[in-house]
Amino acid sequence: MLTLADYGWDGERERSFSGFRADGLVPGRVVRAELGRCDLVTETEVVSALVGTSWGAGERLTPCTGDWVAVRPATAASSATVVEVLERRTAVVRSSASRTSQAQVLAANVDTVAVTVSLADPLKQGRIERLLALAWGSDATPVMVLTKADRSADPISAASEVAAIAPGVEVLVTSAATGEGMDALTAVLSGTVVLLGPSGAGKSTLGNRLLGEDRLATGSVRTSDGKGRHTTAWRELVPLPHGGVLLDTPGLRGVGLHDADEGLDKTFAEITDLARDCRFADCAHTTEPGCAVLTAIEDGHLTRRRLDSYHRLQRENAHTASRTDARLRAELERPKKQIARQARALKKFPHFKA
């Protein structure tokens, strides 16, 4: 029988849980979360629990798959209830799909983020960079997993292309159909592993290979547009036979960045390193003199596409932050207001010089 330790419970968490135990609560880990209810594994069983309000705060809880929670056990008169979400050590977070300022936690307390990309389709470097920023920003360890190598004309060349835009990340070529690369992948996966990628990347098929059984639903890619179908309808935590647990996620059609400064710095590590040699500390790497990043482009050590992608994701991240940070929003709006004032002055006084 599996224990909480098999799901990642350790001595540090046990020590921090003493106050909850004194109140009659027990620890559990969310294996599947739904609105107002979640399935979780406890020290003695797998239970379905209601989601209550935060312990002493009165705020509605929003547990995510992978969360550790404090649970009030069921009684003859009441169901088991989650009363607190414990502090998350890591979290994969994206901007809400609704494009609001809210963040959406995709997975909590993960150790390895396996960014899955299909070699059956043309590589999209911008999408890979976006997913890597999400993975690095989680504080977990990213691994690039290139799937469906059996359907690629030149998987080695593709791996080299991905490695060039994934500094510091191990890149593995795999095929769930033939077993290629599966031993190497198993060796680098540790703790709680989340599979992250677009629909059709082969996440569920890869997950079944790791699990040693067809437990996760799989489906084919649409022939009309080459896009994958959402065969995984929810996030679920499943124990792995070699140790650790696997978290399969629905395919991501959109990946909005949220508070991704650190993730972008690591994703574009070569640009971050070059920036240290720029003449100006606040160099934007656009037209400034003495810019080490622009010099690297001129010398052929950095591609313009790479810098453009970095700038684009930085702007998106800053815009997302501005929707929740009034001060930053004011800073972003100030240049627009200055231009508007100057335009009005020129109309009123044609000889006015800004």
Which fold name corresponds to the CATH topology of the largest domain?
Rossmann fold
The parts where pLDDT drops under 50 for at least 5 residues are 221-233
Mean pLDDT over the full residue set: 87
How many strands?
A: 13
**Envelope shape:** globular
For the record, give the distance between the C-alpha atoms at the N and C termini, rounded to a whole number.
75 Å
CATH superfamily of the largest domain: P-loop containing nucleotide triphosphate hydrolases
**Beta content:** 15-25%
Q: For the report, how would you describe the main beta sheet?
A: 6 strands, mixed
Number of helices, counting only DSSP H or I runs of 4 residues or more:
11
Q: What is the chain-wise order of helices and strands?
A: HHEEEEEEEEHEHEHEHEEHHHHH
Helix content: 25-40%
Structural class: alpha/beta
Q: Describe the strand arrangement of the main beta sheet, using strand numbers.
A: 10-9-8-11-13-12
Tell me which CATH architecture of the largest domain applies here.
Answer: 3-Layer(aba) Sandwich
CATH class of the largest domain: Alpha Beta
Question: How many distinct folded domains?
Answer: 3
Integer-rounded radius of gyration = 24 Å
What does this structure look like?
With 354 residues, this protein is α/β, with parallel strands linked by helices. It has three domains: 4-85, OB fold (Dihydrolipoamide Acetyltransferase, E2P); 91-248, 3-Layer(aba) Sandwich (Rossmann fold); 261-348, Ribonucleotide Reductase Protein R1, domain 1, CATH 1.10.40. 32% of the residues lie in helices and 21% in strands. The strands form three sheets. It has a six-stranded mixed beta sheet, sandwiched between helices. Strands 1-2-3-5-4 form a five-stranded mixed β-barrel. It is globular, with a radius of gyration of 24 Å. It starts with 10 loop residues before the first helix and ends in a 6-residue tail after the last helix. The model is unreliable at 221-233 (pLDDT under 50).
